[in-house]
């Protein structure tokens, strides 16, 4: 029986520090690395990132969109990278941000969270904006298979407030409601629940303003926005406060820009992990 994702992530962050390296094969990065913008370029890019950081960081996060834009050949590369990442023992968070009505969500859960599925990593990013309950099939399968979810809560983009800061009839913000639902699923779990949230490192004091109690979530907090989107150590410390021990900082372009040299990528990831660790300790 696989240990729960939250426990596996806590152990990985304890061993390697609180950094997740995003595998985002942007066309511009492929070009800068001297690779073609096709499936073979994607494959070289992603395998190089794994070579550089697997076994050295807590997690990697392939961004599905950059693979899907190449159709079935790109999805086949994503499958290969998910398998290769898992073989190294480094946790794989598939960033596909799925969300749909419950019956269709069951199919997404099968694709990304079921044992034996070629797209199943250790965790999946999901969108709760069809209602948190629409995620039930993914929650059930994640928890029963030792996997995890990262539910979008306070996203790093500037438009996120339009939905996430809105208040429902009872005056509670949408973001706070999503966080409370995740907290209920993680109640009494130690050391960390498996239903995490996405909270951008760029959101400033949004958690306070929206009434999101990050520490009470008792689950991991995936924090994109480091590096290319402008956040750094100061922002990490400011945004997460008392919840800093739950944070998995995520950087894609900030690390990937150091490639294609494996040693340079490794050094960039090491530096990002050290900075995140110092900011969050
Ligand atoms: O709120 C969110 C949720 C997800 N992301 C994803 O993280 C990476 C960020 O890449 P950088 O190059 O480090 O900016 C990317 O895959 C996004 O889709 C996010 O940025 N914000």
Automatic annotation (TrEMBL):
Reaction it catalyzes: orotidine 5'-phosphate + H(+) = UMP + CO2
Nucleus found in the keyword field: no
One Pfam family hit: OMPdecase
GO molecular function: orotidine-5'-phosphate decarboxylase activity
Pathway: Pyrimidine metabolism; UMP biosynthesis via de novo pathway; UMP from orotate: step 2/2
Enzyme Commission no: 4.1.1.23
Entry annotation: catalytic residues: 97 (proton donor)
Cited InterPro entries: Aldolase_TIM, OMPdecase_AS, OMPdecase_type-2, OMPdeCOase_dom, RibuloseP-bd_barrel
Top EC category: lyase
Keywords, alphabetical: Decarboxylase, Lyase, Pyrimidine biosynthesis
Residue ranges occupied by any Orotidine 5'-phosphate decarboxylase domain in the UniProt entry: 18-268
UniProt keyword Lyase present: yes
Protein family according to the UniProt entry: Belongs to the OMP decarboxylase family. Type 2 subfamily.
PANTHER family: OROTIDINE 5'-PHOSPHATE DECARBOXYLASE (PTHR43375:SF1)
The protein, known as: Orotidine 5'-phosphate decarboxylase
Species whose genome carries this gene: Cellulomonas fengjieae
Gene (name only): pyrF
